[in-house]
Amino acid sequence: MNRLAVYVQGIYAGELKKNSSHDYVFTYDKSYRTSSILPALCLNMPKSQAIYKSERLFPVFANMLSEGYNRRLQSRTMRIDENDDFAFLAATAIYDTIGAITVKPLE
Questions:
Q1: Where are the beta strands (DSSP E) in the chain?
Q2: 26, 16 in Cβ contact below 8 A?
Q3: Count of CA atoms in the C-beta half-sphere (13 A) of 36
Q4: What's the farthest any 2 CA atoms get from each other in the chain?
Q5: What is the mean pLDDT of residues 99-105?
Q6: Sheet holding 2-8, edge to edge
Q7: What letter would DSSP give residue 42?
Q8: How far apart are CA 91 and CA 83, in angstroms?
Q9: How confident is the model over 22-52, as pLDDT tens digits?
Q10: Considering Cα of 57, then 61, then 66, then 72, what sign does the dihedral take?
């Protein structure tokens, strides 16, 4: 099982898990979810629900990934399977992301 800690503007928001190639789960951290001032991860994942499940990587995370030539280059450079979105997310969304979301691997 692969696990990533998800941060929004540097604040721990929850955990993203990949149980299998068709089983993803995002769980909001309780203190993040119950805070009235912290934003939801995205519009289609409001804080009113603690756990989200999907058969593929959630769009909010998939949209953070590179495509085309850049993806092929990253795949070769970092030795990541080009078709493994979760591995790409773990390797590339740690520090410099365009939006407010970053991720860090959990042991």
A1: 2-8, 11-20, 23-28, 51-54, 101-105
A2: yes
A3: 0
A4: 43
A5: 90
A6: 51-54, 23-28, 11-20, 2-8, 101-105
A7: B
A8: 13
A9: 899 999 999 999 999 999 999 999 999 989 9
A10: negative
d(CA 23, CA 53): 7
pLDDT in tens, 48-71: 998 999 999 999 999 988 889 988
Evaluate if residue 82 carries a pLDDT over 90: no
Long-range contacts of range 7-12, CB-CB < 8 Å, 24 or more positions apart? 7/101, 7/102, 7/103, 7/104, 8/32, 8/38, 8/39, 8/41, 8/100, 8/101, 9/100, 10/102, 11/38
Indicate the pLDDT class of residue 20, thresholds 50, 70 and 90.
confident
pLDDT for residue 96 is more than 90: no
The Cβ of residue 60 has, within 10 Å, a number of other Cβ atoms equal to: 19
Q: Are strands 101-105 and 2-8 parallel, antiparallel or unpaired?
A: antiparallel
